[in-house]
Amino acid sequence: MRMSGRGGHGRATLIAVAVVLAWLVIGGVTGPYSGRLGEVATNDNAAFLPTDAEATRAQDLAAEFVDRQTIPALVVYERTSGITDADRQRVSADAARFGQVPGVVNPLPPPIPSDDGQALQVVVPVDDAEGEEIGSVVEHLRDIAGGNRDGLTVDVAGPAGLLADLIEVFSAIDGPLLLVTLVVVLVILLIVYRSPVLWVFPLLAAGMSYALASVFVYLLADADVLKLNGQAQGILTVLVFGAGTDYALLLIARYREELHRHDRAWDAMRTAWKGAAPAIIASGGTVIVSLLCLLLSSLNSNRALGPVAAIGIAATLLVMLTFLPALLLLGGRWAFWPRRPRVDQADPQAEHGIWSRIAGFVARHARPVWLSTAVVLAILTLGLTQLGVTTLGQSDLFTQRTDSVDGQEVIARHYPGGTGSPATIFATEQTGRQVAQVAQGVPGVAAVRPVSAGRQAGPPEENAAPKVVDGRIQLEATLADPPDSDGAERTIRELRVAVHQVPGADAVVGGFTAINVDTSDAARRDQNVIIPVVLVVIAVILALLLRALLAPVLLIATVLLSFAATLGLCALLFRHAFDFPGVDASFPLFAFVFLVALGIDYNIFLMSRVREESVKRGTRAGVLAGLAVTGGVITSAGIVLAATFSALAVLPLVVLVELGTAVAVGVLIDTIIVRSLLVPALAYDIGPKVWWPGRLSRANGEREARHAR
């Protein structure tokens, strides 16, 4: 759209005002939803399992054996010198009060003493229908149990205690995490722009993006179209602010560049938008499509994260390409005060002295630069041998001590590890006794008893008649190891093999540990399926954007090398600096999707500008010009994204700390090493052939020959 003269300037201003006002109205409507996502989030691992998983089938069968499904809270009392009569009276009184708590299913079983006489345990079944309110129920139980006194320690553990602690962690997303993210972005923008005004525009646009994304996510989650959990909610926050600020930095940098060439802000913005928008759209599109590949996951949690994050990026693209340009137009040159750009027709490279010098260094030492950086990254990949992929135990989930962790350790000291969280076995009535005998013979199984008719909670009664539902009975197998340990998972796998071999039993094994086993298996399957699809999708997008085949292959190769180097370095940090026991089974896939999708962003920003400059200058000169003019803004964008993902460390959850660290480290490696040195040096060394088989590879041949001479 062309506008000339004063009338054109006036119409441009009116359009910008209308766009800003429209977005402010939208923000007023959507803003409140950004603080309500926790209302529609669920953090129950079982809800995210594939429908065909054995643990899911076991849950469905378990629902037929009870009037109401429950999740146990284990209140454990410990006195190392021995439980006293006064302690028993206190526990009995507490148990009576537990039964009066709304959400607790009565009757409660009697307290269970440990064999060594040093502990008492009360199993409190909490109604599973309470959902996120389980956290409030457990908090009430903790208030009743009180703190430690006179040498008697009290903790509330078990699946309900763990879930309550997770809910408390994720409740910090709408407060501390959002605040830390905003502060981080604000500080970096102030440093980058050194302006008391300009930082307002990208931060306001990022906030608008988050509000717009929140309303769509809220409505879809509330309608059960997708499932939202705390992990996806936290990632949405940092992703929108990080990616949004990245896109804003790119557009503002190009706008500032064009203000040196155009007298009117409208003309400068139109040219800047036309130059930056394709790269921003391609970048955002790559991230969106990569995230949507998570829909191929067999885990509902992954399938939810993909659309949630994709909605965040889509909202960010829409806001940054409409609301932000309108704000900048209204701000004009004054938005850059005190460093207002003047119309001087300066070469963009002249404004980027340090990056022009880096470009010159790359030109003089192209081959040594890309070879040495590739070697350094390859060396970092050796750290992958330290990356232990496992199912994190309950005591390893949090970066700080929690009541559920303390309680689980007390239970492990005085009871068989699986007490309170038994494995459930379903078999036909005719084979029930044989299945029980086979299960009892599996190493790691401490006891097997049938669920009897009339039992509501607590351990099964010995020698009681089993309850029969549709020709099936339910057995409960108490494991010797804690339910979240590697030993318990091995036992479940062996238990399944054993009971599946009983003829006619049609045995199904479920329970807390079985859920972890099936989740880990599904995560490994997802990696093998989704990672190749993401790579193919990114390759197609790059080929269409760059109109070449060789360049996309090289870019993907550099990003994969960067990804492997990042995991290698993070493995060393997690093990030797953070003292983490390993990474969760879902970590490699999440790290891959975010690092590769976001890492390729910076290569898109660079190479789309390199191609633009190559058309005018030739490939090698275009590489140097592209590096010089994008170096500062891309590095700033990388620092912003790394810092925002680092904000995940405010949530005391090992999985999110690891993911935030990996993305931060990977983005810095991408921006500082891969995009600044490896990619431009490789493209410069290859020359026009990098655009093969596109027309540009042939058109630049003669020009490059003259340049070489």
Describe what this molecule looks like in 3D.
The protein folds into four domains: 9-40 and 174-348, Multidrug efflux transporter AcrB transmembrane fold (Up-down Bundle); 69-171, Alpha-Beta Plaits; 350-400 and 518-708, Multidrug efflux transporter AcrB transmembrane domain (Multidrug efflux transporter AcrB transmembrane fold); 422-510, 2-Layer Sandwich (Alpha-Beta Plaits). α7 (200-222) packs antiparallel against α11 (323-331) and α19 packs antiparallel against α22 (654-686). It has 24 helices and eleven strands. It is an alpha+beta fold and 709 residues long. The model has no long low-confidence stretch (mean pLDDT 85). The two termini are 43 Å apart. It has helices at residues 5-30, 54-63, 85-98, 134-145, 158-170, 173-193, 200-222, 230-259, 265-292, 300-320, 323-331, 353-364, 366-380, 394-397, 403-414, 432-440, 486-500, 512-546, 550-577, 587-617, 619-646, 654-686, 695-699, 701-708, and strands at residues 70-78, 112-113, 119-127, 153-157, 389-390, 423-428, 445-450, 468-469, 472-479, 508-510, 583-584.
